[in-house]
Design goal:
Number of strands: 4
Distance between the termini: 42 Å
Largest sheet: 4 strands, parallel
Radius of gyration: 17 Å
CATH class: Alpha Beta
Order of helices and strands: EHHHEHEHEHH
Strand order of the largest sheet: 1-2-3-4
CATH superfamily: Toll/interleukin-1 receptor homology (TIR) domain
Helix content: 25-40%
C-alpha cells in the first residue's frame, strides 16, 4: 500500500479547560497557544505539500478509538513532524509517536541516517532539547508567539517550505510502509509524567 499522509504532525495537546463564567455566557475559552501553533503550522505546511496532505488529530472525537486511529495514521505517514515544547518529551503519547517513527527510519530508508523525523522547536532551551533529537536537524521557530499572525511571515514561510520540500521528496521516494497499518498498534501507552522533566515554564501555557 502507498502512504495516505505525507507526514504525521505530533504535538503535545493542551489541557482542556472551560471556565464556568465562559460556559455560562455561552463563550468558548481562548484557544491554547499550543493548539493555535499546530493549526497555523499545518495550514501553512499543507500549502507546500504537493503529493499528499499531512495528518493531525484534529478530527478525532470523544468515543473514537483514539489509540488505534493514531497508530494507523502514523503508520500510513511517510514521516513525522514534531512540534516540540519543553513538555513534549514529558508526554507518553508524544514519546510513543516519536519512538515508533524512529524505529521505522532504517527499515524505510535502508540506511542508518535518521531522516524521517523533523523536530520543530516551538519554545524551550535548544541546548536541552537537541540531545533528544540525536542527529536530526531541527527548525527553530521560537520567535513565534502569535502563531496565526506570525506563521505567514516571509522568514517563517521560507523555513516551512524547506521542510515541505523534504517531505514531498520522501512521500515520492519511500517504499511502502512494509507493515499492515490497519493492524499496527502502539500497545499500552502510560500516563504523562506528573513531575516535569524540564524546569522552565512554557510561554505557550495559559
Amino acid at each position: 500500500m502507498s502512504y495516505r499522509y505525507s507526514c504525521f504532525i505530533s504535538y503535545k495537546r493542551p489541557p482542556q479547560r472551560l471556565g464556568r463564567r465562559q460556559v455560562t455566557l455561552g463563550k468558548l475559552p481562548p484557544k491554547h497557544l499550543w493548539l493555535e501553533f499546530a493549526e497555523a503550522f499545518q495550514y501553512r505546511l499543507d500549502q507546500y505539500l504537493t503529493v499528499i496532505p499531512s495528518f493531525r488529530d484534529d478530527h478525532l472525537q470523544p468515543g473514537d478509538d483514539y489509540p488505534r486511529e493514531l497508530a494507523t495514521s502514523l503508520c500510513q505517514s511517510a514521516c513525522l513532524v514534531a512540534l516540540v515544547v519543553p513538555e513534549y518529551f514529558e508526554s507518553a503519547w508524544c514519546k510513543t509517536e516519536w519512538a515508533a517513527m524512529a524505529s521505522w527510519e532504517k527499515i524505510r530508508t535502508g540506511n542508518e541516517r535518521a531522516q524521517l523525523i523533523f523536530p520543530i522547536i516551538c519554545t524551550g532551551d535548544p541546548s536541552v532539547l537537541r540531545p533528544k533529537f540525536g542527529s536530526r536537524l531541527d527548525i527553530d521557530l521560537r520567535d513565534i508567539v502569535s502563531p496565526t499572525k506570525q506563521m505567514s511571515s516571509i522568514k517563517t514561510l521560507t523555513k516551512i517550505r524547506s521542510i515541505a520540500e523534504k517531505i514531498n521528496s520522501l512521500a515520492k521516494t519511500l517504499p511502502s510502509p512494509l507493515v499492515d497499518c490497519d493492524a499496527y498498534s502502539f500497545g499500552v501507552v502510560g500516563p504523562d509524567v506528573s513531575t516535569p522533566e524540564f524546569g522552565e515554564l512554557s510561554p505557550f501555557g495559559r
